[in-house]
Structure prediction request, 382 residues.
Amino acid sequence: MKKAIQFGAGNIGRGFIGALLSQASYHVVFADINEEMINELNEKKSYQIHILDLEQRQETITNVSGVLSNGPDIVNEVAEADIVTTAVGPNVLKIIASTIAKGIEARREAGRGVLNIIACENMVGGSKHLEEQVYTHLSEAGKAYAEKNVGFANCSVDRIVPPYQGENMLDVGVESFYEWIVEEPSLKGEVPQIPGMKLTDNLLAYVQRKLFTLNTGHAITAYLGYLAGMETIEEAINNDEIRAVVRQAMEESGDALIKKHGFDKEEHYKYIDKIEKRFKNPYIRDEVIRVGREPLRKLGPADRLVGPANMAIQYGLGHDALLKGIAAAFHYDNPQDPQSKELQEQIAKNGIEAAVSSVTGFTEGSEDHRIICEEYAKTSKA
Prediction:
């Protein structure tokens, strides 16, 4: 039987990527540092996915097991795998890179063939970033082997998987919509046959479409909802004032995407309609404090807030709502989130003007920098 290693046994790993791999007749080995989760996977060998939508249903995911990602068995699991996927968060890729490298070296020594690795993270170029990290741990022979036998294919992933309390810890709740688009030219050997995985030779367009639409709208809804004292994405998007800003921001990013990638405007605006409807799903309780976490990453120059604003600037297009969303993000104050804590310390120490410039890359004195600071000054948490 084909074997898949899924790094990350969290909600996205179990509720999205791992589930699709299992349904494609792979034995899925979840690798994670959560010992309780791994023990439960090895004991139960199955779990339930609950589709949270108007037509609610359950899917049983079988043929799964677990292994500690920091334990002695993970290297051999990678060495024997047909495919490796990740859903660990962008910042953790460098941590698992050495383990993957050891697995590649073990494959080389055993004379095993092709392995495809797909980092399913909310970032542009996740698999290539992982590849760079892995190569720093490979021997020269390992690098030569990997160049011939190991594919690192970037992808775009899209599914809202909120926190969920089921009957047992393995159960997970997901929305019915999902999209997994993989860069076909970077795959090695025979293309894996996985229903639900779409292949493309123009991944950047799809990555940016998703990141600058779904993730942009999601983040701005969260930050504006947080400012208004709201708890959930659904509550926030059903507020007319917030919805108007979020919609305008997604249209601003959309107009820039249409210019850059040649998307059909009518089709792209229908895509925006679909995303707005997803935010309103009453069966998904997605807290604004969760969606807003890691604001420093989300305010990066190429990420979901500043990235589309820069693209709009590049094409001379309006981006006022995007700037409002950026300003709102600087108010996100969650002491449980290390990045939020760091951001608030920057603002307290250096002032909002310096913080905006440092985090977003907008030059102090520029028009966009001025607008963000003015919008920040206009608002405060309810």
About this structure: The mean pLDDT is 96. The first helix runs from residue 11 to 23. Residues 40 and 170 are 7 Å apart (CA to CA). The two ends are 55 Å apart (CA to CA).
